[in-house]
Structure formats: C-alpha cells, structure tokens
Design a protein that fits this description.
4 domains; Pyruvate, phosphate dikinase (chains A, B); 8-stranded mixed beta sheet; 30 strands; Pyrv_kinase-like_dom_sf (chains A, B); 35 helices; magnesium (chains A, B); disordered N terminus; EC 2.7.9.1 (chains A, B); 8-stranded parallel barrel; alpha/beta; elongated; Glucose Oxidase, domain 1; transferase (chains A, B); 856 residues; Dna Ligase, domain 1; homodimer; D-amino Acid Aminotransferase, Chain A, domain 1
C-alpha cells in the first residue's frame, strides 16, 4: 500500500514515488536507467524540467491493479502543468512502452492555451494527446483516425468525436484520471508477451522491472523560438566528432527526426538552415550542455532538448547508439580526452564486435538480396562471377576477373582454384570441411553446407530455393560472416585497421596477462599474424603444404610405395620444398616461436576421389587403374576423424615425420644465419598414449642429432604434444615428462568428448541450441563443464609431472572470449587462434585481466 | 664360491646342491618345479631313485664358468651308478635343455655291464650317451652319426671313432668330467637367445632361473622284465578317466612314446599287448602309485617310470598336458573326488579357454589349409558352399545346403541372406561393422576385413592370395574364432555343454558377487542367454529389428516423410511388430530384467547404397529417383560414429522413441498378464548432456501414462542412460538424478576416449600392440587407465548424486575377465556381454570373488 504523504519533503522519504532531486534515493536497479540519468543531469544543474520517478515496485503494483498515490505525484507539479510519462527500464536497451505526452490537456486547457500560444498550437497539443491516449490507453485501432484529414481545431474536434464513437465515453477531462490510466496502461504493456520476449532476447532477466518517469512538459510550441530536437557530438557510424541531430520549430518529442527537409540542422551546414543560425545563443548553450554531459557522464550522449522562447531545456540524455567501429573510436577518444582511463576504454569495446572491423563486409545499410543461408565458414564478404571448376577459376584470375568458386564440396584438386578465387561456396561440409579449413587459411570468405541450393556443377547451373538460376559468369556475393549468399553486388564496407584500432590494442596489450599466438599455415597467414601482433605461431598445420599440385603427386607416389626405403626416397623430393616452407615462416616471424604440427590427416585425403582422377593417377604411376581403385577403396575409412592419422601415421609410416623433422631443422639453421636464432616447436598430433610420444621423440631426436652433425652446428628445439583426445588429458601426467609443451586442440577434443563430429553436427546443432540441450554450440564456445574439466585435469596433471611445461590452447576456441577466460583461469601460457581473431583475443584477454584485477 | 662339504649331512646344509630328502630345503622358486615335485614324491615314500638338486643360483654360476663341487654331488651316489641330468625350471611350461642319460658310461663300465646285462644292452646305453654328449655337449652336428648303420657294439665303436674324428679328442672316460661338461652345457643352453625368447613367450620373466636335477639311472635294460614308460589316468583330449600311456621293454627315457606298435599298452587293450598282461604286479603297483600321486599332489599327473626286473621305479611326475575341455573335466572330477574344494576347481579353469567349449570348432588335430587370416568377428566354425548374394543364400538354404555368404561388405539388404547362411565372409569392415554385429547377433561364424583376398562379387569369384580361385558352390570353412578362412572341410569338434560344465558353473555362481547379463537382440539370443543362465538382458539393441525387409521399407518411408505427423503415421505401422518383438523377449526372459536401448544408428544406414536399390526405393515411394539420390546424399555423414544418431535422433525426430516406448509398454502389460510381472528397462543411447535425458524422459513418461490410462492398468518401468561419451561420464552427477541406471557402453566410450574408430583401427592395431604402444587392444581388454578412469569418475559421480543408481557395463568388454575385474572393483552391479560369453563372464567373476576373498 502506498503511504499517503503530506508534502514534498515527506514524498522524498517514499523511495517508490520520488521527485528527482540531487539527493533523492534513485538508482538504476530500482527506478531504471532513465531516472538515474535524469538525476545525474539534475546534479549537473542542467535545465531539466521537474520530474517524478516511480520505482519498479510501484509500477509493478500499478500493473497489478493498485491505484497510485496521485496526490503524492501531483503535488510536485504546478496544477496547470502538462505532463509526460516515459519508461525507465534498468538497461535502456531493454525497451519499454512508448512515451505519452501532454497529459492534462482537456477542453478547458485547450481554451486557455489557445489564448497564450494560439489555437493552432494548442489544438496540436491536444490532438497529439487524444490520439496517443486512444491508441495506447483505450487500445483503439490507430486507423480510427485515418479518415480525419483536417488538422487544427477541426481535426481535434473530429478526433474527439471518433474517440467517443468508439468508446461510448467522453474523452476524460481530469488530469489525475488521465495520468492514472496512462500509468496503468504503460505498466501493463511491460508484462505483455511480445515485450517480454523482445527484452529477453536482449539479455534482460525474466523478472526485469520497469520504472516510469513523470515529467513536466515544456511544450515546444508557442511564442518566440520554440521547438524540440536531439543532438549528439559524434557520427554514429564512424565515431568521428561531428555535431549531428535535427531540430524542428514548433514541435514536441522526437518529431524533428521524422520531419525530413523541414527539420533544421544543428550546426551551420551547406545543405540547409541550422539552429546555429536561427538561435545562436540557444545553440551555444546546448553545445555546452552536451559537452558537459559527455564529460561528466563519461559517455557520448544523445541530448533530447526543447527550446522554449529561446531558452534551452534538457529533457533527457540517452547513450548514443553506435556501430562497432564507432564504439571503438568513441571509447578511444573518451580516453584520449582523459574523461575515462584507457583501461575503461578497453573494457567498453565488445571483442565479438571487433571482428566486423577486421574484414571487408557488406555495408550495414545495403539492400541484401538473400538467396540462401549456409554455414559461414570463413568471415568477410566478396563479390565475383561464379565459376564451377578450379580451371575456370584460374582462367578467370588470369583475366583479372574476381570469381567465386562454386563446388558441391572441395578436395585437394580444387586448392589451386581456391587460390585464384575471391570466395568459395559449397553445397556440403561443415566448419572443418576441406573448403572451410582452406578458406580460413587463405582468408577467403567461404560458405559451406549451402544445401538448400541446387548444385548442378556438371551442367554449370546453380539454383536458388526460390527458383532463380545462376550460370557461369553471373555475379554473386558471398558473406562468409553471416553465411548469406547474395545475388548481385551490394555496397561494401572496407576493413579498418586505423590508428584508433592500434591505440586501443596498445592499451589492451599493456593489461593482458596471457599470450596470444596465431594459427598460421602459410606465409600470408604468418604475415597477417605479424600485422596483428600475434606473439608467435601457435599452430602451423603442415598438411596443406602437400595439396599443391606439384607436391600432391609426390604424396601419392609415397602412398603407393611398397617399402620404407621406397617411401623415404619419394619423400626426399619433398624435403627441399618443406624446408623452404618452414624457412619462409621463420623469416617472417623473426625469431618468434613457431609451433609446427607434424603431418596429421589420413593419407586417403590425398588420393583422387573421382574416376578420372584415379585414371590420371594410374597413368602417372604406370599402374593398372584397378590397382589404384583398389588402393583408394582399401584406404577409405568409416570414421576418418577417428582413423589412421596423426601420430598413428607417425608410428606406422615414420618416414613422413622423419622428412618433416629434417626440413624443420635444416630451415632452423638456415633462418638463424640471417636473423634472430629460431627455436622451432615440433608438435605431435592425436596422441593417446605416452609410448607414441616416446617412439616419435626418439626418431626426431636422432634426426636433430644428424642435422646438427652434418651442418656442424648445434640448435635448440622444443618437442610437444597436441592434446586432443580425452585419454591424453587424463594421462597428461605420464605424457608431460617427455614434452616441453602441451597444446590442447579443443576442436577435436570437443568432438571426442561429446562424441560429436563437427562436420555432421550442423544438421541438428541449431535445433539443439534452440531447445537448450546445449546452452551454446560447443564448437564456438568451449564447453566449460565437460571439455573444460578435461582441460583442467590435463593442465593439473601435466604440471604436476613437469612444472615448467608450457600450456596452451590452439584451435578455433582460442579466439573466443568466453573460452579465453577458461584458459586464463587455468593459468595457460597462451592461446592460439586464426590470425584474424588475434585482435579479438588480445582485447578479450585484456578485459579478463582488468576484470580480475577489479575482483570481477 | 661353493663350500667344500664333508659328508651327506653337511651337504644338506648347502641349499644350492642338495640331496632330495623329505626335509631338504627345496622349493620351486629356488630349485625349480621338477625338483620340488620329486621331493613330494619322496615324501610320499615312492620308489624314486636318489636325486641331487642344483639351485638356480648354482646353475647360474656354472653357466658363468664356475666349476661345481663335484665331490659334494658324487658322494651322494654309488660310485658305479650311472646318472642322468634333467632341467628343472620354476614353471615346467617354460621348457629347458633336453635331458642327458647314462652319464658315467665309459669303456670300462661297458665291459662290466656287458657281463651283467649282455653286450647288446650295455652298448645301447653307451651309444645313447655318446651320441647325446656329442650333440649337446661337444656341439657336433647330429648328422655326424647318420652314416652309422650298425648297432650294438659295432655301432658303438663307429660312434666313438666319429666322435674322435670330429673333436680330435678321445671320448671322456671320467664320470666327474662327463658330469661337469653336461652341467655346464645345460646351464649355458638356458641363456641362449632362442631358449629365452621361447620361454618369455610363455610368460617367463627375463631373469627366470634354471635348476638341474641329477638322478641315479635305473637302466630299464637288463635281466628280467625291464623297460620304461609313462602313464596317466585320464584322456588328455576329453579329461575322461582312462589309463593311457605306453611302455616299452628294454628301453630308457621316453622311448616308449616314439616306439609305435612295438610299445605296449598299459591296461588290457583289444588293440594289442599290455603291461597289465606282461607284468600284472608291476602294473598294479604303478596304478596305485599314480592314484596316490593324483590324490596327494591334487592334480592329474603323468608318471614317468622304469621297471627293473619287475620292480617299479618312479622317475618323475609331470602335470598332464590337456585340452581346454579336459582341463575343465579334470578340475571338476578332482573336486567331486574331494581331492580339491570346488572353489579351487573354479580357479583352475581358464575363462579365456572356456570359449572354445561353447562353439563348434575346427578339430585341433585337423589339417588346416589356410587361405588367409581376416578379423574373427564372431566365433565358431562352419563349413559350406560359397554364395555371393543374399538371394543365392536363400535359395541354397531352401535346398537344405549349408552356404557361406561372401560379400565385400554387408548392408541391411543382406540380412535375410545372413539368416540363411551358416557363416559370413567380407572383404571390408572391423569388429563393429554391420556384418560383425549381425553375425554375432545371429551366433553366425563371421570373418570380416579379409582384405588380402580378392572379392569379385559381380563375377562371383573369390581369389586367395596364393592365386587359388573359388566360385559359387566351392566349399570353404570359416573359423570365426581364429579369423582363418580354410579351403575344404576339416574335421570339426562340436560344442559341449555337458553335466561337467553345468557343475562347474554352479560352483562358480555360488561364489560370484557381480551379476552377469547378456546382450540379446533377438528371441534366439534371448534363448541362448537363458540357456547360459544370464541374469537378464543388459542390452537389447533395437535397430536390428528394422532391418527385416518388410520393416525396412517402412523405415524408409518414415525417413522420407516431411512432417512429424507424417512420420508418426508411418511408424504406427511398425508398432505392432515392435510390440511383438518385445513381448517375445519378455516371455522368454520370464520376468527377468530386460534393458532395451532405444533406436541408436544414423538413419542413413537404412537407405539403399546401390543405384538399383535407390531406383527401387524411388518406385516404391513414387518419387523421382533424383530425389532419392539427393536425400541419400544429403544424409551421408563424414563420421557416422559421431553423427546424427542415438539420443540426437530422440530429440530431433522424437516420433521413433515415442513409437518404441509405446511398443515396450504395451508388450509389458501383455507379457505381465500370463507370467511374472515385467519391469522393462528403457535406455537412452549416446547422451552427452543432461537436458537430452530430461527431454526424452518427459516424452517417455507421457507415453507410459497414456498406455496405463488406455489399458486401465499401472505398470513400473526403469529409465536409464547408456554412458558412452566421455562427457556423460564427467557429468554423471547431473545426469544420474533423472535415471534409475547408468550402463557404460565401453565400445563407444573407448572409441571416443582414444579418438579411435574400432572399424578403422584394425589396419594398425596389431602393429601398435606389437610395438607396445598399447599394451593390449583396448577394444578387447578395457583400458584401465583412460577409459577406466572415466568409468570410475562416472560411477562415483553418479552414485554421489543418486546412491541407489544401478551401475553396469554393456558391450564386448563385459565378457572379458580383465575388464570384469575393473567393473567389480568399481562396485558395479552387473556386466552384460554377448550370450556366448556369459559362461566365461560367470567363471571369471567367480574367480575374482574367490581371489579377493583370499586377499589376492
């Protein structure tokens, strides 16, 4: 029950219905963000109209039918004042019911105001209130007023009649009665289903409350220069300083924003008339107020104002909506202006949003002609003419034409085509399919699993679900960030890596306490990693080096060799190429650590899958085609993910690792001649038993000894294990003593912990997340419970056996902020992620360090 | 250094060179099993010739060059006695150098003995010694004596000359010198490489020692009835009581065994003359001694004896070698005769060997014409004519001809052919391939992965690696126990489940403290499980129920249905069939628990893989064939093991589980009408998150409620989870509260813990085990470290959250003794294994219980 109060002072003691004064008990979590913001403005002695705040609790009780204590409210206002009511949720992003203006208008006030401001203006005020009340409070259809063409007093008269006709009641004339109805209506709207779903989608808790603020209206219409508008000091797309906003004479609320050309600019502008010219004093006041607000509220604010006969009133301040890139610049500028400390600027930028800045993207305002949505497997957007074969892609590139390679799925034979394309689109596959992995490696926008489209690659026809047909040369756009396939050529927004970005990253690095490396397989990747200031390469996958056509045939000969010495002889031919691969990486990384994962994939990935490919291979090897078919068939696997790959090849076909180790060590000596000494890291994949490590280690140690003896020069190297089976985590205590580092491959570890193939999970993952079976896709966000516990056990046991073992995570999770938090909590030395995720990781890691220092 | 001793009594104090007396310090682990056994015979006051035992330590020092204390040895024997030396390793199975007889023979003794026993006999003794010494001690080639055709004194003369020619030395004449040379030669032979490898293969430790026994020779030649032989009281193949062995007059050592028809039977025998007839008193003595030996040594012994002028001497007793079935009968008879307690009989039968008894097998003595060795995926042996298609198999069965179905791999279309065949042979696949799983389910001998053979199934030709070609109708034998494919029709040994087996199992069950259930999918399986006294069904896989041709087409329609209600309508047609499946199982199991795993495999397994199959399906569904192709293609998976199966289907295509639950509950009520009330157990496969369990549970609970309401009768059921992902083990604490039981599916759990597909691991598993990378194949023996720890965590956490949750293991490991030990240690309630493994599991579990009661 509301207490009945006597006077203003007593009201201050009622925390649920309180006049906003500098000392009133108002907080965002009791009265909402708007109420709290208004109190701040009041404390800054800004010209804010008198305002009463209703708490969440008070509003909740109104929704449940309680009559608010009208006297307590109305005694705060002049009896002639018009009022408005606006929502005040805890977080302004959560929304709320629309504002209702001009409460208190009635026939008598209409007559009075007609005298002071003219009949036209008074009618406009009354009309606005009647229509708003009819729709929001009496719940009439807005089209009740559609037929009313007249404005002014005639429009008002017709509207009042329409109201009476629909409701069978006269329009309420009592201000108190009006206010109660508005408050109740707004309170109840908050509990509507769609409002609830909407705000919960934005992260609001189920029991989020609504506060309301009741403010005295400054009409914005009347004698002298009157009007309303909004102002902000930045461009919301770029974040650059620029006074933006609109002002409309003789208007209320946010009318100026919808007024088109009749609205004024604020600052002098060649495009039209401005407030600065019309009312220079008011403009100067307003600018000063805005600057004060930015400084004291430590944020870029949108100022909602009214000018009344040349005098400025500040109705409200709202945090400026902003694009990702604007958010970054705003934070950096606030820190550069010493309004906030750099740490806070770091905290204010969402690492997830940072991703947008690092890739070319479809312009946010461009029209998207979406043909289908597949799996966005490699971010960024590119436009090009579609081609259906690798050869066409190469021809297209030779002509200097951007092309998109369209395949049902890709295989090693397509890699040269992918190099030539600006984007890739496949019908099949998931996040770790061939196309996806190579696409990310090349930084090529890539969509896989676009299974709703029909791929008739032999006929060179691609059909959209809506029936549209695309042929060779037709232009599409691939948005690898969203997974959307777009027809035509929408406007693009280029990637930005400007000074502002570098400044923010510098501040972030100063705070960060876990290292960030990049996964980089190629010189281009390595260069990107350097550009993004990765602290080394955490995962260099070597298998992609064998997909080059010249090397592929050698690999195939190796697979067909019958003996160990035969395999070694064939691999000898790859040695100089591999050595140069590694030497290039070492040169680019200039002495930073480079962790090279030894050969990992099943050998059958290197064999041709098509009949014609098998025929060609048979010719090249001078074998009957039936032999080749048989071999391909015999090597196929039911579950390649769990098959003959990784260290299992290292143990059973050791010649490959021998060759790779030699290439690494020879490149090490070569690169160390001309620059910083290189200490390569050699990583053994897919380990499940310590004996695997012992066997491989002893061979690699002897290769190292042989190279050192041959070249007459000693060198260091670090041998480690990629921990990606649950068993390797559990047995880390016996594995760690043989290793310098343990790097957790969380992609495969997640697959095995869940028994879930990433390539195949796409079909039901979205249903699973929607039904809450998994709270998140565990391939995007590291599962803290299952996979996380294995990481914990692996880290603890590894360290117990070898306290100075280096611990890290490599794989896609390395770039995910939530996942980095888990690694940091476990005391990992570094995380490694794809080059384009490095800035995200650097920022996220910095935020974690800052939060934990704040005890957050 | 050996101490010099004065007299017999003093020698007794030298534990390294000791006369075997009842009180001598002789033990198997210092002097070897033979020395110890001889001491037991001495204690039984058997007529054992005087014997001196040399300890491991003494023999080791002799091997290293030390001269043995000859006086201490020789003073134990009459100066005229001939001696023999025999090996005495700790375990007689570990072998040792051959015995050397007649040490002490020389020219002078030859003359003496010629007087007493005749020149012929004396020459035979000397000749034997000379040749044996030449070969074993002087290391001459045995062929040195090949040209000597004469025997008697002429043969002796020529042999001595041959010895001198080869060695340039006269044959040594001094008994002591002879003895030292023999001892040194035998001591050193023990350290030879091949001897070491041989015994280590039999489980001997690297430092296993050799003892030697020096025994006075009772010649076996001479006046009156003289000769040697061996006797045992059982048939070594069957274990049935029967006096077997051979005796040869005027012979030594084990000559009787190689003498063919000239050797006598022991007991009266229609086939020829017997010792019983020739020397009834000696035979009676011998029989009495053998019976005494059996009773007091508590074992069936082979008695090695010599008859000297009608008197029996016992030279040695050796544990009778025996077949698996003989081992069982011998143990049971010893217990029935109250020589050993039943518990000990249980302990004496090797559970692994028991497997042999339960399947028809190739006769151990049959000649095996091995064409190739594949993966023995389902045990037992069958002979039949080969056919290459399921239709031929059915035709063959209709003619009453046993046939073997030969396929490159099998698919659901082949199941009817498998039903008609007596065995299955495939080129591809591993232990969990379709053919293997169905084969085990049908109890059909099955070999998969026979990749060295060439399968030209279209041409209906099967070629062996040696080039032999087999066509339709040719006869092969499949030995699914060893994996051998045999040409022709070797002799077979039928399975035995006689009284003796039942007796042993009864004793085992009395000791056992963990329950044993069977995995049974069909009524035939269930009946086998009952016959083997399984305590219920621990795993009923339901997917095989859908491979029947009549049901397969319904499944396919279901897969092609577009809507939930469409799927439900199609499944409705399967309901009565499924209900009858379960009703049958419940009837057979008569109220015992039946744990039914809900549908598990990926749906694409039910789609046709061949072009013609797809055409047929298109016709049946009245769809364009391209639609069918597209759908088959779209549903294919990269890693089906980790794909859309198990509970993932239950969550996303819930109509299948709904139908199955209804079938189970309706069958429950039906079966409970006529017999013991049935409490079905419903098991959810492939769980990785608790929410999966919640979702499925709530649907199944409502089906149960609906069935109870419709039929107006309440019933109980238990819902549980198959724990087969590492994550389910780790999160058991949150999963257990929703379940009545957790059953660990260790097949899949092993695959995921190692990241190793059982189907694909075959290619390198043997290399891995050989190199010691894995100590055992983890699919045969549960990995105690990795998978074992997950079981432990799962069990602990499950029990912590729900103390009365039932814990079990189902899967192949359930029948493996080492794996049962792990489950028992973790306090599991039961293990479940394939029906034919149930006796093995019962026995192994009983042994574990007995051992742990003995503190073992």
């Amino acid at each position: 029950m509301l207490r009945r109060n006597q006077k203003g002072a007593a009201v201050q003691n009622n925390p649920h219905t309180t006049l906003i004064t500098p000392d009133a008990p108002v907080a965002a979590n009791t009265h909402g963000g708007r109420a709290k913001c208004l109190q701040r403005l009041v404390r800054l002695e800004m010209p804010v109209p008198r305002t009463v705040a209703l708490s969440f609790d008070a509003v909740h009780r109104i929704a449940e039918g309680e009559i608010p204590d009208l006297t307590a409210i109305l005694e705060q206002f002049d009896s002639a004042a018009l009022l408005c009511v606006r929502p005040s949720s805890e977080d302004p992003d959560w929304g709320g019911p629309g504002a209702v203006l001009n409460i208190g208008m009635n026939d008598a006030r209409y007559v009075d105001l007609s005298d002071t401001m003219g009949a036209e203006a008074a009618a406009a005020l009354y009309l606005r209130f009647v229509q708003s009340y009819a729709v929001h409070v009496a719940r009439l259809d807005a089209d009740v007023f559609d037929d009313i063409e007249a404005d002014g007093s005639e429009g008002l008269r017709q509207s009042l009649r329409a109201y009476e006709d629909e409701t069978d009641e006269a329009f309420p004339q009592d201000r108190g009665e009006q206010l109660i109805a508005v408050l109740r209506s707004m309170a109840r709207a908050w509990d509507g289903t769609s409002a609830r779903l909407l705000r919960q989608a934005k992260g609001a808790p189920a029991d989020a409350g609504l506060g309301l603020v009741i403010q005295e209206m400054i009409p914005g219409v009347g004698q002298g220069e009157c009007g309303s508008g909004v102002l902000q000091l930045v461009d919301i797309t770029t974040g650059m300083p620029q006074i933006t906003g609109r002002y409309l004479s003789q208007s209320q609320g946010r009318d100026a924003l919808g007024a088109g050309v009749s609205a004024l600019f604020l600052e002098k502008d060649p495009r039209g008339l401005s407030l600065e010219e019309v009312a220079p004093k008011a403009f100067a006041d307003l600018k000063a107020q805005a600057a004060l607000m930015r400084e004291k509220l430590r944020e870029e604010m949108q100022v909602e104002f009214v000018i009344e006969n040349g005098h400025v009133h500040i109705l409200d301040g709202v945090r400026v909506q902003r694009s990702a890139r604007a958010a970054m610049r705003i934070a950096v500028r606030l820190a550069e202006d010493e309004i906030i400390p750099p740490q806070e600027a770091v905290m204010r930028v969402d690492p997830h949003a940072l991703n947008e800045l690092l890739h070319r993207q479809v312009h946010p305002e461009a029209r998207r002609d979406v043909l289908t949505t597949g799996i966005g497997a490699s971010p960024g957007a590119s436009t090009g003419r579609i081609v259906f074969t690798a050869a066409e892609a190469q021809a297209s590139a030779a002509r200097g034409e951007a092309c998109i390679l369209v395949r049902r799925e890709t295989s090693p034979e397509d890699v040269r085509g992918m190099h030539a394309a600006v984007a890739v689109l496949t019908e099949k596959g998931g996040m770790t399919s061939h196309a996806a992995v190579i696409g990310r490696g090349l930084g090529l926008p890539c969509i896989v699993g676009a299974s709703e489209m029909r791929f008739q690659t032999k006929k060179k026809i691609l059909s959209a679900p809506d029936g549209r047909v695309f042929k060779t040369g037709d232009i599409l756009t691939i948005d690898g960030s969203s997974g959307q396939v777009l027809a035509g050529q929408p406007a693009m927004l280029e990637a930005t890596l400007d000074d502002c970005f570098q400044t923010l990253m510098g501040w972030a690095d100063a705070e960060r306490d876990i290292e960030i490396r990049a996964n980089a397989d190629t010189p281009a990747d390595a260069q990107t990693a350097r550009n993004f200031q990765a602290q080394g390469i955490g995962l260099c996958r070597t298998e992609h080096m064998f997909f080059d056509p010249g090397r592929l045939i050698v690999m195939r000969e190796m697979i067909f060799a019958q003996t160990s010495s035969g395999r070694a002889a064939v691999l000898e031919r790859l040695l100089p190429m591999q050595r140069e691969d590694f030497a290039q990486l070492f040169r680019i990384m200039e002495g930073q650590p480079v962790c090279i994962r030894l050969f990992d994939p099943p050998l059958h990935e290197f064999l041709p899958t098509t009949r014609s490919g098998q025929r060609e291979l048979a010719e090249a090897l001078d074998l009957p085609v039936s032999d080749v078919e048989r071999r391909v068939d015999a090597m196929s696997e039911y579950n390649p993910m769990l098959g003959m790959r990784g260290v299992r090849l290292g143990v059973t076909v050791p010649e490959i690792y021998d060759m790779q180790a030699r290439a690494i060590f020879e490149a090490t000596l070569e690169a160390s001649k001309n620059g910083a000494p290189v200490v390569p890291e050699v990583m053994i994949p897919l380990v499940s038993a310590k004996r695997e490590v012992e066997l491989v280690k002893s061979r690699i140690d002897s290769v190292a000894a042989a190279v050192a003896a041959e070249q007459g020069q000693e060198f260091e190297y670090r041998l480690g294990v990629m921990v990606e089976t649950p068993r390797a985590c559990l047995r880390a205590e016996e594995i760690a003593p043989h290793t310098a580092f343990l790097s957790f491959g969380t992609n495969d570890l997640t697959q095995m912990t869940y028994g879930l193939s990433r390539d195949d999970a796409g079909r039901f993952m979205s249903a699973y997340v929607r039904q809450g079976v998994f709270t998140e896709d565990p391939f995007h966000v590291l599962d803290p419970d299952g996979v996380g516990e294995l990481l914990k056990l692996g880290a603890e046991r590894g360290r117990a056996a070898q306290p100075d073992v280096t611990l890290s995570v490599c794989g896609e999770h390395g770039g995910n902020p939530e996942s980095i938090a888990i690694c940091r909590d476990l005391g990992f030395d570094y995380v490694s992620c794809s080059p384009f995720r490095v800035p995200v990781a650097r920022l996220a890691a910095a935020q974690l360090a800052i939060s934990s220092r704040l005890g957050g």
